[in-house]
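Order emerges. As here.
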Amino acid sequence: MKIDDAAAHLEALGNPTRLKIYRALIRAGEQGMPVGRLLAKLDVAGSTLSHHLKTLMGVGLISQKRNGATLVCHANYDQMRSLVAFLVDECCAESPGSCSPHTFGKVA
């Protein structure tokens, strides 16, 4: 992942409502969550949810698919893994002796 992409992902997740939406979709698993259930779960206005979903989709963190009359949101797990990998990729790179076995699974 490029630094500009990571920054865009982190900026999108930097809003508390968007972070709540994203965490709800991560918890929902591969089947995703219908927009109506997200609305009820987060207790936000439909226009507010729509705005935040658009931002998360714009950076590729989530997607939406229509299932009949229901719009279902899905977390993009590949993007999540790429972002996490980007963040921990160089953990302790400049001080390898300082990493413990519990530091993101890396051993000095």
The mean pLDDT is 90. The chain is about 55% helix and 15% strand.
